[in-house]
Amino acid sequence: MIVCMASGEGSNFEHIVREGIKVDLLITNNTTAEVIRKAIRLNIPYVIAVKDYEAHVPESTELVILAGFMKLLSKDFISKFPTINIHPSLLPSFRGMNAVRQSLKAGVKVTGLTIHWVDEGIDTGSIVEQVTCRVAESDTEETLQNKIKKLEHTTYPRVLKDLIKLKEKRL
Ligand code: GRF
Hints:
It is a single chain. The protein is α/β, with parallel strands linked by helices. 36% of the residues lie in helices and 21% in strands. The protein has helices at 11-18, 34-42, 75-80, 99-106, 141-170, and strands at 2-5, 25-28, 46-48, 63-66, 83-87, 110-117, 127-134. The protein has a seven-stranded mixed β-sheet with strand order 3-2-1-4-5-6-7, with helices on one face. Helix 1 (11-18) links the parallel strand 1 and strand 2 (25-28). Helix 1 packs parallel to helix 2 and helix 1 (11-18) packs parallel to helix 5 (141-170). It is globular, with a radius of gyration of 16 Å. It starts with a strand and ends with a helix. The mean pLDDT is 97. The site of 5-O-phosphono-beta-D-ribofuranosylamine has 14 residues, from helix 1, strand 5 and helix 5. Residues 6, 8-13, 67-68, 86-88, 149, 152 line the site of 5-O-phosphono-beta-D-ribofuranosylamine.
């Protein structure tokens, strides 16, 4: 069973599902998140849980995919379920919130995305994949965010497919 957790727009969630990854359940902590509408459109069962979101992850879950999930998960949860996340910077630079804003402020010329396993820290887990892009002089937070999201939409499904294939081979 694969569970996706998201709090916002859900563009990554949508691309993951459209690319053929069988997401069994979406969990969101945000009652007004756009991702809910996407789950309905894509026919994916969903749960809205403002607080006890962890409790809604079924015991049989083999992979938790975080896609813009804005809450921290407990130590117990992380040790129980393999959990993967996507972050809009080249970790270990610019962890946490507003990573794109932080990158622009620091004046970096190259940035990108990181896909990583989730551990107890904030964006500190082991890195699975990184993809880079250049920061243009003219980039604003919005244009850079969009540039990175475009890369996320192809990279996250590709990496997830590879991980799932690897796991199936091992069984
Ligand atoms: C993405 O930029 C991702 O890197 C970050 O949250 C954002 C989620 O966007 N963790 P969306 O909700 O998938 O559109």
